[in-house]
Amino acid sequence: MSNNVDQAISKLPGPLAEQVARWWAEFAPKSGDTALEESVAESLPTVWAGSEYVARQCLRHPEEFVALQPRLLQSADRAAFAAQWQAAVEPVEDENGLMQALRRFRHREMVRILWRDLAGRAELEETCRDLTHLAETCIDGALDWLYPRFCDQYGTPCYEDGSPMNLVVLGMGKLGAWELNVSSDIDLIFSFADEGETRGEGRTLSHGEFFIKLGQKLIAMLDQQTPEGFVFRVDMRLRPFGDGGPLVTSFDALETYYQAHGREWERYAMIKARVVAGDRAAGEELTTMLRPFVYRRYLDYGAYESLRDMKGMIAKQVRRKGLEQNVKLGLGGIREIEFIAQVFQLIRGGREPALQERQVLSVLHLLQEMEVLPEFVVRELEAGYRFLRDTEHRLQGYLDQQTHDLPEEEADRLRLAHSMGFENWQTFFAELEHHRQHVHNHFEQVFAAPQSVEDENENIFYDLWHANLDDDPARRALEEAGYQQPGTILQRVGELRDSRLYHSLSTNGKSRLDRLMPLLLGAAAQVDDPDITFDRVLEIVRTIARRSVYLALLVENPLVLSQLVKLCQASPWLSRYLSRYPLLLDELMDVRSLYAPPARAELAEELASELAAVDPDDHEQAMEALRHFKHINVLRVVAADVSDVLPLMKVSDHLSWIAEVILEQGLQQAWRHLSERHGQPAASRDSGELGFAVIAYGKLGGFELGYGSDLDLVFLHASEDQNEMTDGSKPLAVPVFYARLGQRLIHILTTHTPAGVLYEADLRLRPDGASGMLVSNLTSFEGYQLNKAWLWEHQALVRARGVAGDEAIIDRFDAVRHNVLGRERDPDELRREVVKMRQRMRTELAKKEPGYLDLKQGEGGIVDIEFLVQYFVLGYAHRYPALMTWTDNIRILDTLAETGLLNETDVEKLKDAYRVYRGHAHRMALLEQKVLAREGEYEQQLMDVKQIWDQLFRE
């Protein structure tokens, strides 16, 4: 194989070939007659050229290298490392022997890992994973050897039940993320589960004392320099209080520290924390305990500012120490890619558990899937990360030294370029700069402050907020910006700046509000109604001021602030909605989804997915999830509505779909709650159906739901046996079970939680109204409708439909509805009753204000059209069953034209008036005004409806 090696050496660049040839000449006699594997011989010059460390290890232990050859050609998993360690530790008898075994093991495995890396046999992921497995094996191996000997000497730390308690070793940074580099420190935190005393016959210690001694010895085993070198440099500065804190702390002490003293950079560090040695089961409990510190339940946009500050500190260090050519810390370096991934983890990880991932590349791909980062950005960041990490490994692997600086000597530059697969330094450096430029550009896009301090100082609104302007210049500045009442705006600004609210804010909160207010003054000045809009947004700012994460959201995202201003200009209802539910500000981040409300199937899928992530036993959290779902999707509808993206009828469709899917899932939640306690009716157990249905009347029944509408509901069940019991350990009579199911659903809809209520529910349309049973048996419901119901109840049935629950019951309800609506009625009697009822409603309910008309209850208004439709259904459905197909007024009107009961001209007039009135009602709801119109407004529509009414109902 000597010829193969010599030939491969001859292909190296001259300076590299000379050095490798000298090493080979020294190595060949030491290896004896043992032949090298062909592939090993061919790759040897490339590997030695790239790593003097590997060459020296081969020269020092040629017999070990020859024996290592088969393993150079194959990858290894954690079990393979463990097996190699067991063989290495078996003859160890004392601590000196352990130290020697650890170092020899480490050198041997490093040779294997670096060989595969430099020979092109391992991708980046394998190299990082193997280095991590090596570190874990050494930590775990040393701890396993030391722990029983310490127990013999000091007694055994135990849990209350007497089972032994071991040290928990958390690996931080790259060790925790399986991303360890070739010559990396290992950042560790030591902890133990419970305080107590060791148990033994001789000397005993407190658990804290025992584990501190054990931790100190473990560090020495790994970190201490001996003639064989060290295993890993151990860095314990990430522990609570750093070098000033105890080496080992209990779980409770660790949790208390992070709750009381934890800083933003410690959250960042904890993202990658993982149990790497010791008591792994206890360690998993610890990481679960600490997770809320790292990942907040809300979207934490303050992370931008925190990581930007950290990067700023690093940049100062880079300039001070001349580290511009540092591939880790310099511009476009590894740290910038890590910050991009981790800022989104800190922001979204509490709400998106998938992002609670440790590896940078995995996080980047998740961000692409979530459409947080575009595909081309992730592609360029991944390419940059791989190139930079490979460069880092080549730099460190040459002498097994911790360095990230590009070399300055020509020979070292040539060596690095060659090990990276380039012919010369210039081509390598050009590729490196290409990647670093991409990375830094993307970093700047993510982290660029929307307005720097220098910009703010040049901004008139900055001076205005900080009271750096006298009143007259301040008023002129506001007037020139477009404000109509500058004095009032100046007063509002001063009231907030001088308020107890402002002065009670944390330093961080004040800083963020100081940055936000000039931006808000400028943004509100861009819309048509700046004074009113500023007031509306200011109320939201007051609401969120103590939750500075929302201030950070508005400061860090100019798009969010502009969308907030735009929406608040359009609707005081919406601004109040956002003020009441500030979590919705997060939704302003994504304009694509904000103005594109999902269809019914997507809504159902979205809600089911959100509830699937909630613990089935956590009923309160499920109720919160339902409310959050409603708020988000109503916001999308309103945003699309005020932006004229959705026509009126589609607005009502979307609002109705939201209510329907909430009722479906709410019913499932109620069923689960009841059936867990009391079991199920036999019919439900056998069929898998609920035997229960929700019938919607009124606006929801007619697909005409508006903002803030109540839900008119009726509950039906199919059980006929009054004495039948459910099959649970606490059985109930089935009618009682269904009554409680209805009660539970109402509870889910109407209970006030931190996220408000879902809907107000009105059940007065059930048989016998408020005095009737909450849930009716289908048979009794049918009997009531046929024999006892008033005419107005049959009118209400026109707009009734099943929206949730058992399809079989909904089908039976439809049959009852058709049977009732399709009865032949005396036309004269029907006409008299409809007119009489309409006159009474108009007298009792119509709003009379000078100069205004009531578009709902007044003559020619919405209710007149509804009564017209109901009259035709009740009077003619026995002849034209198609009139019972639909529950919404527009499609019933179309059917009246198709049947010839009304001419097409009159139908179009009624439809046009109905749409106009409903559109006005929607606008008034968003403006928080009554459904009134000025006299003379909608004159044509009102006249058209009156004429058709009079033609039909005149005596």
UniProtKB/TrEMBL annotation:
<feature type="domain" description="Glutamate-ammonia ligase adenylyltransferase repeated">
    <location>
        <begin position="42"/>
        <end position="285"/>
    </location>
</feature>
<dbReference type="InterPro" id="IPR043519">
    <property type="entry name" value="NT_sf"/>
</dbReference>
<keyword id="KW-0808">Transferase</keyword>
<feature type="domain" description="PII-uridylyltransferase/Glutamine-synthetase adenylyltransferase">
    <location>
        <begin position="837"/>
        <end position="930"/>
    </location>
</feature>
<dbReference type="InterPro" id="IPR013546">
    <property type="entry name" value="PII_UdlTrfase/GS_AdlTrfase"/>
</dbReference>
<keyword id="KW-0067">ATP-binding</keyword>
<dbReference type="GO" id="GO:0016874">
    <property type="term" value="F:ligase activity"/>
</dbReference>
<feature type="region of interest" description="Adenylyl transferase">
    <location>
        <begin position="457"/>
        <end position="955"/>
    </location>
</feature>
<dbReference type="GO" id="GO:0000820">
    <property type="term" value="P:regulation of glutamine family amino acid metabolic process"/>
</dbReference>
<dbReference type="GO" id="GO:0005829">
    <property type="term" value="C:cytosol"/>
</dbReference>
<keyword id="KW-0547">Nucleotide-binding</keyword>
<dbReference type="InterPro" id="IPR005190">
    <property type="entry name" value="GlnE_rpt_dom"/>
</dbReference>
<comment type="function">
    <text>Involved in the regulation of glutamine synthetase GlnA, a key enzyme in the process to assimilate ammonia. When cellular nitrogen levels are high, the C-terminal adenylyl transferase (AT) inactivates GlnA by covalent transfer of an adenylyl group from ATP to specific tyrosine residue of GlnA, thus reducing its activity. Conversely, when nitrogen levels are low, the N-terminal adenylyl removase (AR) activates GlnA by removing the adenylyl group by phosphorolysis, increasing its activity.</text>
</comment>
<dbReference type="GO" id="GO:0047388">
    <property type="term" value="F:[glutamine synthetase]-adenylyl-L-tyrosine phosphorylase activity"/>
</dbReference>
<keyword id="KW-0460">Magnesium</keyword>
<feature type="domain" description="PII-uridylyltransferase/Glutamine-synthetase adenylyltransferase">
    <location>
        <begin position="308"/>
        <end position="447"/>
    </location>
</feature>
<dbReference type="Pfam" id="PF08335">
    <property type="entry name" value="GlnD_UR_UTase"/>
</dbReference>
<protein>
    <recommendedName>
        <fullName>Bifunctional glutamine synthetase adenylyltransferase/adenylyl-removing enzyme</fullName>
        <ecNumber>2.7.7.89</ecNumber>
        <ecNumber>2.7.7.42</ecNumber>
    </recommendedName>
</protein>
<keyword id="KW-0548">Nucleotidyltransferase</keyword>
<keyword id="KW-0436">Ligase</keyword>
<dbReference type="Pfam" id="PF03710">
    <property type="entry name" value="GlnE"/>
</dbReference>
<dbReference type="GO" id="GO:0008882">
    <property type="term" value="F:[glutamate-ammonia-ligase] adenylyltransferase activity"/>
</dbReference>
<keyword id="KW-0511">Multifunctional enzyme</keyword>
<feature type="region of interest" description="Adenylyl removase">
    <location>
        <begin position="1"/>
        <end position="451"/>
    </location>
</feature>
<dbReference type="GO" id="GO:0000287">
    <property type="term" value="F:magnesium ion binding"/>
</dbReference>
<dbReference type="InterPro" id="IPR023057">
    <property type="entry name" value="GlnE"/>
</dbReference>
<dbReference type="GO" id="GO:0005524">
    <property type="term" value="F:ATP binding"/>
</dbReference>
<feature type="domain" description="Glutamate-ammonia ligase adenylyltransferase repeated">
    <location>
        <begin position="562"/>
        <end position="814"/>
    </location>
</feature>
<comment type="similarity">
    <text>Belongs to the GlnE family.</text>
</comment>
